[in-house]
Design goal:
elongated; 4-stranded antiparallel β-sheet; disordered N terminus; about 190 residues; alpha+beta; 4 helices; 8 strands
Length: about 190
């Protein structure tokens, strides 16, 4: 924060005002951006994985875990902000008795912050379950499948489609199980002119 002080400088010019900018160091208020922190344990790719889930006030979600000694972070923004209403409609339709809120005949949702957090935690588990199913089907080609799905399918018509698309975004953005390859540089070779 910058504070301004003004004073009249009599010896130089009594009609002129000078400002001195003094920057003061004030302790920032400790406002946490985290709405909820929790840990969940799920099976993933034949391993038991502990997820650290952090839901921010905007409902942006960070999911941290390690798999085969490699740390991963999934940053999920799809349901943050304006995307929350669509997400809640889809998850409540999928799990009507899940305790995530209510859906009226017009498609409007009613839910508390706790119910929204509960819905997001369920969606995170569904995303990781989807990744596990993709791994079981496609093995180490999981990243190739994620790229394919994002380019060719990219539907959000149902909760399952929505979760699968987010799962594929997470896989691509985290380079999930990408091969550890050291590439040899291929030098340019000029053409032979005749």
């Amino acid at each position: 924060e910058i504070q301004f002080r003004a004073f009249r400088s009599a010896p130089i010019n009594p009609t002129r005002w000078f400002r001195i900018f003094a920057q003061t160091k004030m302790a920032a208020p400790s406002i946490s951006n985290t709405l909820k922190d929790c840990k969940e344990t799920i099976p993933l790719c034949g391993q038991t994985v502990e997820l650290e889930i952090q839901i921010e006030n905007s409902f942006r979600t960070n999911v941290n875990f390690s798999l085969f000694g490699q740390p991963y972070t999934f940053v999920i923004t799809k349901w943050a902000g304006r995307g929350l209403a669509n997400f809640l409609q889809l998850i409540i339709a999928q799990y009507p008795t899940g305790g995530f809120g209510s859906l009226d005949d017009d498609g409007n949702t009613t839910s508390s912050k706790d119910q929204r957090c509960k819905a997001i935690i369920q969606a995170v588990k569904d995303i990781l379950r989807t990744i596990d199913n993709i791994f079981k089907k496609h093995g180490r080609a999981i990243l190739d499948y994620a790229v394919y799905y994002r380019e060719k399918v990219k539907s959000e018509a149902s909760y399952g489609d929505y979760v699968t698309l987010i799962a594929c975004h997470c896989l691509v953005h985290s380079d999930f199980m990408a091969p550890s390859i050291t590439w040899e540089t291929v030098p340019f070779s000029p053409a032979q002119l005749e």
